[in-house]
Specification:
By secondary structure, this protein is mostly helical. The protein has three helices and no strands. The protein is 47% helix and 0% strand. The chain is elongated.
Length: 75
Amino acid sequence: MASSALTPSGTSAETPAVTPISLKELAPWAVLVGLLTLALLYFVGAEQGATSLLAGETVHEWVHDGRHLLGFPCH
């Protein structure tokens, strides 16, 4: 017969300690995610015409369906 890993009170014998993540440790990741989100929003929503950073229609064609999905007009 197999032995149980639970103590008689119904809790496990070893409960792992959960350490909270401080805001100081989380801030660089939040900034990175925010910048990546803004870059993605720019390329999906505004990379065409007068505000274009890259020449040609390549970026527009790559994100074309995403533009329509998010409601950005493109043509």
